[in-house]
Amino acid sequence: MSFRELRKQDTALGRFWQALWPKLPQVAQKRLIKLEPKPAQLVRRAACEALFDMQTGAAEAVPTLIETLTDSDPQVKWTAIRTLGEIGPSASDALPELVRVFKGGFNPVPPGAAKLAAAASVALAQIAPADPLVFHLLKGALEEKAASANSSDLALATVSGLEQIAGAGHDIVSTLLATLSQAGASALRYRILSARGRIGQQPQSVVPVLIDALRSEDSALRSAAVESLGSFGAAAAPAVPTLILLARESLAQTRNRAQESLVQLRKRLGTSSTRQDGPELPTDPQPIGLFKRYGLLPEVDPMSSSLLRTLGSIGRPAKEAIPFLVEEYNQRENPARCEAAFARWQIDGDVQAVFPVLLEGIRHPVFHERSHMIPFLRRIGSEAVPVLLVAFRDTDSTVRATAVECLAKIQPEALLDPVILKSGINDSNLSVRIAMIQGLGACGEKAAAAAPLLKPLLNHSKHVIRKVATEALEKTAPAQTKNASVHESPPKP
After folding, report:
1. Fewer CB within 10 A of the end CB, N or C, for the chain?
2. Cβ contacts of residue 30 below 8 Å, gap of 6+?
3. Does residue 41 register a pLDDT over 70?
């Protein structure tokens, strides 16, 4: 790409050709396709976007990009600003012009100036994070915009800019704390709370403010505070009592929704336990029985999940939450019981205590719930292997395949057990066989003894089996792969 494309302007001849092109017959347009006119504005946009993709590699284009900040097209200017930010400190020559664009965002005229200023605030922080001028510029802008009842792109972007310079010795946390009390817009308060969690400075001053936010009537603020506390780990221990109260309330609401859904389901299917024209309804008073049968278990409320994740991330200092978590995961109708069990494991590491819940989770009749268990089991690691070995013997092929995939990532050597190996390779379900073959590949040369079972699969009738078997053999026994005959299509009978 030539930098001249950034300066391209429409000529009189070019405008004439652009006006004439749509009037040409399609046959002529096809023959002259290489001469199709492109408005200079689009050429400049494409050039800026190409430089943005290059990021730091576009440093030599800085002088031209600075000129582009005065372009007549707002989209070109916006992309140029972002590109300068991605280039970083090497674009320091652009600071004066970026400051001008940033200050222009406080004037509602021309339209779009605020969007450009928002991009400039982030770019300034990327280029000169340690510059006191940049810090005070962003701080002043945030303080000026904070009291507005409507959040602006500029105010939100300024918070992003302050986040960028958090590690450069500036007192970002105090600035955000002071602004929080003045913020008139909920979206801005939410953004500030989220930023503080990621900055992670001075937890002793931030955590109390986040605890106060947990008591807010604004659900978005409560959610942001929960997520932010989760990033502080053990330092968020003072928030545990409030988090427990919130989690208890949130999970109760989730169960109430489950009960309401159960009532609606009973009304749809009939009020009695049986119907002549429909399926028999279980008389189990707990909703879990009916929901399991029809695969209609309610989703876990996002707030409930966030609260449980945060309690777990705090770790041992959250041990007072264990009785509450035990209460939650012992309720079979609770859709968040697996999250509660995992949070308990994060706190005290007692796998045996949550083993039954994990086992039920991996056997859950609803696929979404079974797949939801995978991240938990992966995090637990080798201690989850007994659960996965039980799941491997499940009658549901999806459960078996999921178990093999998890074992392959957690402890692939477990797949080398002769019984598991033979059962997985010869499973009646294609997904299980594929997962087992790929798992053997993950074992590398430790699975060399499995080569006699893999070699015949190179001539399997299904292409996908031949493909994964070849890949597995290349990792486990490369020498045997070279001597094997692989069919690209199913062998003829």
Report:
1. C
2. none
3. yes
Domains and CATH numbers, the chain: 3-202 (1.25.10.10), 232-349 (no CATH)
**Predicted pLDDT at 268:** 61
Query: Which residues, in sequence order, are CB contacts of 459 under 8 Å at separation 6+?
Result: 466, 485, 486, 487, 491
Query: Which residues, 6+ apart, have CB-to-CB distance to 467 below 8 Å?
Result: none
Measured CA to CA, the distance from residue 72 to residue 50 in angstroms comes to 19
Cβ-Cβ contacts under 8 Å for 128 (sequence gap 6 or more): 89, 92, 95, 134
Residue type, 456: P
CA pair distance 421, 423, nearest whole angstrom: 6
Among the listed residues 410, 332, 343, 402, the one whose alpha carbon sits nearest the alpha carbon of residue 373: 402
Read off the pLDDT of residues 416-432 as tens digits, 9 standing for 90 and up: 888 888 899 889 899 89
| Buried/exposed 195-216: b ≥16 CB within 10 Å, e otherwise | bbbebbeebeebbebbbebbeb
Q: Looking at residue 446, what is its pLDDT?
A: 86
CA 211 to chain centre: 25
Output the CA–CA distances (angstroms, integers) from residue 430 to 118, 372, 401, 427, in the order listed: 52, 22, 9, 7
Contact 66/94 with Cβ under 8 angstroms? yes
Name the one residue in this structure whose structure tokens are 């609770």: 334
Q: How many CB atoms lie within 10 A of CB 477?
A: 20
Kindly report, residue by residue over 269-299, the tens digit of the pLDDT: 554 333 334 334 333 444 444 444 444 445 6
In terms of C-beta distances under 8 Å and separation of at least 24 residues, what long-range contacts does 57-65 make, across chains too?
58/83, 58/86, 58/87, 59/87, 59/90, 59/91, 61/3, 61/6, 62/87, 62/90, 62/91, 62/93, 62/94, 63/93, 64/3, 64/6, 64/7, 65/6, 65/91, 65/94
Q: Which amino acid is at 323?
A: P
pLDDT tens-place string over residues 97-128: 999 888 887 666 566 777 888 888 889 989 99
